[in-house]
Specification:
The protein has a 3-stranded antiparallel beta sheet, covered by helices on one side. The relative contact order is 0.11. The chain is of the alpha+beta class. It folds into 2 domains: about 70 residues; about 60 residues, no CATH class. This is DUF5753 domain-containing protein.
């Protein structure tokens, strides 16, 4: 896609209100309220999303990224992870049945990066990339809880 004007973008993203200021390309949208995550909704109960970029191409890329995030959230909400099932890396972290405070701290870490539905695979990657206790809200005991759950499921060895 080669978006150069607001009209070009509007053709590809009809659900978004698009405009340009002197320095920024802007997109905003209100939509129906999905089940999660609650803190990303306005007081009127509608999903609010605004994207600001420096060029039409950057705005188009950000809109595509937003569509991927929303598809991930939709897929997450469509799966019934409340019934007993084999725990695999593609499962949401809720399937680990961590203490609520531990799960909340992990979810807030990913939401700050724009990811709405973190998976066990994401947790395994995060654990490999950095010390979990460096995350806000993850104490040594919470990091130990995470390690014990992952080891019990044989998703990690050490």
């Amino acid at each position: 896609m080669r978006a150069e004007t607001i009209e070009d973008l509007q053709k590809d993203w009809p659900g978004w209100k698009l405009w340009r200021t002197e320095t920024m390309w802007n997109a905003t949208r209100r939509g129906l309220k999905p089940q999660e995550p609650a803190e990303f909704f306005s007081r009127r109960g509608h999903l609010v999303r605004t994207i600001l970029e420096d060029s039409a191409r950057e705005l188009a890329a950000a809109l595509e990224n937003q569509a991927a995030i929303e598809a991930e959230l939709t897929a997450f909400l469509a799966d019934d992870h409340s019934i007993e099932h084999p725990i695999i890396p593609a499962c949401p972290i809720a399937c680990l049945a961590l203490q609520q405070g531990t799960e909340d701290a992990l979810v807030m870490h990913w939401r700050s990066d724009g990811q709405y539905a973190p998976t066990i695979r994401d947790l395994l990657q995060l654990r490999e990339d950095r010390d979990l206790t460096a995350l806000f809200g993850i104490s040594y005991s919470r990091a130990g809880e995470i390690d014990r759950k992952l080891k019990a499921l044989e998703l990690v060895t050490a």
